[in-house]
Design a protein that fits this description.
about 240 residues, alpha+beta, 2 domains, 4 helices, globular
Length: about 240
């Protein structure tokens, strides 16, 4: 599906949500899956079974503008210590719209990277050729869609830790002040989660991992901002699993 760019503002920063415990990026004003189901009936886009790992990307049937998405991040999330290479990204501002009145298939979550230094979250398709020019459409100051050859190939979230929220919250608090050390703790959690996926973990290694998670939990315990609550909830779920 060919994607065009326009100047219509629909999405705001507070509509960009990162549910850490389920690793789902939720874009738009809808609060739950029932509301997304209703929106699908009024939309064109890429969607299969909403409750699966398939990406849901929605465009308004009337004007064909992008109105929301539910994207399940692929794990493990690869932690990057340096800055993201944006030399081959041409930046534009606006919204995106589809060129035809029909549904299509698109996956933006084959790979996920988190850049600690910049607090950027990148999710992209295996079809994205990073060695060639792409267009970054900044839909909000913190949320961009990546296009290549007029097709969607990824999403990019700036100040990503500011968009972390617990499962029961439906809007980001734009006024929250997040300590820069949260990015380091977040990156550390992703590195620890990757180790959990090892099927050959010994009991000693499991206890060591649990201790590492609890050390992070202890450091963030005094903070009550939504991002920290999301982090604490995720750690509790992981420790219970271990």
């Amino acid at each position: 599906m060919k994607i065009n760019i326009n100047n219509i503002q629909i999405i705001s920063n507070t509509d960009v949500r990162w549910y850490l415990s389920s690793q789902i990026i939720w874009i738009g004003k809808e609060k739950n899956y029932d509301e997304i189901d209703e929106l699908i009936n009024k939309s064109y886009g890429s969607f299969k079974w909403l409750w699966s790992d398939s990406d849901t990307i929605l465009f308004n049937k009337e004007d064909l503008n992008f109105i929301g998405a539910v994207i399940k991040l692929n794990e493990p999330i690869i932690v990057k210590s340096g800055k993201m290479d944006k030399v081959l990204l041409e930046e534009r501002e606006g919204n995106i719209k589809i060129s035809e009145e029909r549904n299509f298939e698109c996956k933006l979550s084959d790979f996920t990277e988190y850049y600690i230094e910049e607090d950027n979250l990148l999710s992209y398709s295996e079809k994205w050729d990073r060695a060639n020019l792409s267009i970054e459409v900044k839909i909000t100051s913190d949320f961009s869609v990546l296009l290549q050859n007029n097709k969607m190939v990824g999403i990019l979230i700036y100040n990503a830790s500011n968009h972390l929220i617990p499962d029961v919250v439906y809007q980001v608090d734009a006024n929250e002040k997040i300590d820069s050390n949260l990015c380091i703790k977040l990156g550390r959690i992703f590195e620890l989660i990757e180790k959990i996926d090892n099927d050959n973990l010994t009991q000693h290694e499991e206890l060591k991992l649990k201790k590492a998670f609890l050390e992070i939990y202890k450091k963030v315990l005094p903070y009550n901002e939504l991002s920290y609550v999301a982090l604490k909830d995720t750690i509790v779920n992981i420790v219970d699993y271990l």
